[in-house]
């Protein structure tokens, strides 16, 4: 019990204080629900209000169907969507993408079974690809329109005819390239470094570049073996022999020990900065052997040069070795633009935006050539401060 205040005692008629009233009972303490750790549970599919099937069929038209006792429709990955009447039955793939809409659960189950088996004949002949899901490899799905009617259907790559997929991808890439640079006739530009610098670099590489790599001072430079976008199916061992990966940590060794490299870098940086009125710096580079025997390793199919580092803005590829008189030139192509060829002299170079979809063109010459691809990024303020120290 607490003592009464002086003010309370002075107003009291009695010398003994009156007992204090008991405090009101406390409200029960609210406790928070225990927090669940880990990833949130995936959202459950909308409830199915489909009329229960009398007896789901295990086959239909010779197609084995996938039954499920936990599905409201009786079929695996087939859902009832009331808002989709009169075709409320929707089969979905493993990513939750709809494969079509059907009037009956059995028809939807047939569609799902054919999808699993890679068979889309139920929808007729494919007409065109409308959309991709943005994934690659076995996870890729394509929205395919067929001439059998009905809504387009998401299918796996084996079900998409190659000509239709190539046409769709080309259309997408041309649209992307056009949005990036506007006039595709201006998508690449010829430039050059001093011929003597390129020749000195080529001579050093021809003498010291072995199948296992290149010794630069106290460091050993090797190639890469995991880039699969080649004109012919990739050969990893061959790619490792014919590439040099000069990453950010090895660039300084190349500047100090690879003849002509630093001077070529300086000339290209100055050309790039003058052209774009922006400060750039070299972030990494690739050494390449290219010839008719390297279609599985260093002749590259359609790709972008900022796939690994999205901050790479510009690519300049320098041909270190000269062409012989009458020799067919090396060439490349930005998707949607005309092919461009390297000039015949050592030091000839081609510049383009790194994000552009582009491809090597198969060499027409029997000779091997050496090239270095220089990849530039915009120089940041932090880089400027670091250089000033």
UniProtKB/TrEMBL annotation:
Residue spans of biased composition, Pro residues class: 43-55
Annotated spans, Disordered: 1-67
Compositional bias per record (Basic residues), positions renumbered to this chain: 27-39
Name by which UniProt lists this protein: Prolyl 4-hydroxylase alpha subunit Fe(2+) 2OG dioxygenase domain-containing protein
Organism whose genome encodes this protein: Prymnesium parvum (Toxic golden alga)
Taxonomic lineage: Eukaryota, Haptista, Haptophyta, Prymnesiophyceae, Prymnesiales
């Amino acid at each position: 019990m607490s003592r009464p205040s002086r003010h309370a005692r002075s107003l009291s008629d009695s010398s003994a204080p009156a007992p204090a009233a008991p405090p009101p009972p406390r409200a029960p303490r609210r406790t928070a629900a225990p927090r669940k750790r880990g990833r949130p549970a995936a959202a459950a599919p909308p409830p199915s209000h489909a009329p229960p099937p009398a007896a789901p069929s295990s086959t239909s038209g010779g197609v084995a169907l996938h039954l499920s006792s936990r599905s409201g429709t009786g079929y695996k990955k087939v859902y009832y969507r009331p808002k989709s009447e009169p075709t409320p039955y929707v089969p979905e793939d493993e990513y939750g993408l709809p494969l079509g809409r059907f009037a009956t659960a059995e028809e939807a189950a047939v569609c799902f079974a054919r999808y699993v088996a890679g068979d889309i004949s139920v929808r007729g002949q494919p007409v065109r690809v409308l959309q991709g899901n943005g994934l690659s490899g076995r996870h890729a799905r394509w929205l395919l329109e067929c001439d059998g009617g009905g809504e387009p259907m998401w299918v796996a790559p084996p079900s998409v005819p190659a000509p239709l997929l190539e046409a769709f991808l080309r259309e997408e890439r041309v649209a992307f390239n056009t949005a990036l640079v506007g006039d595709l006739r201006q998508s690449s530009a010829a430039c050059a470094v001093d011929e003597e610098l390129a020749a000195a670099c080529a001579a050093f590489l021809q003498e010291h570049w072995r199948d296992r790599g290149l010794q630069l001072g106290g460091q050993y430079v090797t190639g890469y073996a995991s880039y699969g976008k080649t004109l012919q199916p990739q050969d990893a061992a061959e790619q490792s022999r014919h590439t040099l990966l000069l990453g950010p940590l090895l660039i300084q060794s190349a500047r100090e020990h690879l003849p002509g490299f630093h001077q070529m870098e300086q000339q290209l940086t100055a050309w790039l900065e003058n052209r774009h009125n922006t400060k750039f710096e070299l972030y990494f580079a690739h050494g390449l052997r290219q010839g008719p025997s390297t279609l599985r390793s260093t002749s590259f199919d359609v790709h972008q040069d900022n796939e690994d580092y999205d901050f790479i803005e510009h690519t300049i590829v320098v041909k270190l070795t000269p062409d012989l008189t009458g020799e067919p030139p090396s060439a490349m192509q930005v998707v949607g633009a005309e092919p461009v060829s390297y000039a015949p002299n050592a030091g000839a170079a081609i510049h383009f935006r790194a994000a552009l979809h582009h491809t090597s063109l198969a060499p027409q010459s029997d000779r091997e050539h050496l090239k270095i691809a220089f990849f530039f990024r915009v120089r940041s303020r932090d880089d400027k401060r670091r250089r000033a120290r």
